[in-house]
Amino acid sequence: MSVSPDRDLQAQATDDTVAKLPRHVAFIMDGNGRWATARGLPRTEGHRQGLETLRKIIRHAGKVGVEVVTIYSFSSENWSRPETEVSFLMGLLRRFVQRDLSELHEANVRIRIIGGRKDLDKGILTLLQEAEELTRDNSGLELVVAFNYGSRDEIVRAAQALSEKVAAGEMRPEDVTESAIAGALDTSGLPDPDLIIRTSGEMRLSNFLLWQAAYSEFYFCDQLWPDFDEAAFDQALDCFGARERRYGGLSAKTF
Ligand code: FPP
User: Fold this and answer.
1) Partner of 227 for a Cys bridge, out of 102, 156, 187, 223, CB 3.0 to 4.6 A?
2) In terms of CATH, what superfamily is 22-241?
3) What sign does the dihedral 227-233-239-243 (CA atoms) show?
4) 145, 114 in Cβ contact below 8 A?
């Protein structure tokens, strides 16, 4: 009999009751537009301020010992926003990579991009690939930038890649297991997010990490992303530390 994934999860549950810091924290950075509108500013100002928050949060995550941070920077659905906002966000991403890359590299941060790459602007694609390439061997915080990302699209791409292998006779249908699917996703090799934080009072996943979030803890707070800071992050980490993760099993206290 093979070792069932449930037994692995049970072992993880026992470990996690000891380890109170999440290895992987994913952020849905929501509320930039509302932050700006409340101040009579254009929505783009909210995104600009949101980038400042992101810089603070990356530094803080590295300081407290989080291993992986994933940020939802642009979803595959965000293309439907007004063109001016879309091009501002593209410019912001470009500036973020151009201006912060050397600092992130010096801080030993490894950058990884997830999301669809087909039909992306060549300039942005090259920039993102260069950032991944430059930081490939870094061993510090892993910063996963979800760009042009949609979880259903990611799952469809993974299913297509596996189907092609089956059709070519390189895999049998029964080889399409949980681990084969996980390995065909953009996040292959990364630990699943332990904690997903969404700001601005919204309580949805919005097509973010649907497969990977199977056992994630969720933390929703009312702060708008530009107002989120180190203290707010610490509060989320404390809240995570007080949770008991059971992965469908029983409380560790009953073992
Ligand atoms: C959601 O707020 C936020 C986004 C769609 C973009 C997130 C982008 C940043 C935080 C900027 C920095 C990051 C990079 C790498 C470009 P919203 O606009 O939906 O806010 P609202 O719900 O108040 O309208």
Assistant:
1) 223
2) Decaprenyl diphosphate synthase-like (3.40.1180.10)
3) positive
4) yes
How many angstroms separate the alpha carbon of residue 158 from the centre of ligand 1? Answer: 27
pLDDT at 43: 96
Please report, as a single letter, which amino acid is at residue 10. Answer: Q
Token pair listed for 43: 């929505």
- CA 205/CA 250 separation, integer angstroms: 26
Does this model's pTM top 0.70?
Answer: yes
Active site includes 16? no
Asked whether 50 lines ligand 1 (CB < 6 A), one says yes
Q: Is the CB of 150 under 6 A from ligand 1?
A: no
Q: Is 30 a catalytic residue?
A: yes
In short, whether 219's Cβ falls inside 6 Å of ligand 1 is no
Q: What is the pLDDT of residues 190-234, one digit of tens each?
A: 999 999 999 999 999 999 999 999 999 999 999 999 999 999 999
Structural contact between residues 142 and 190, judged by C-beta atoms closer than 8 angstroms = yes
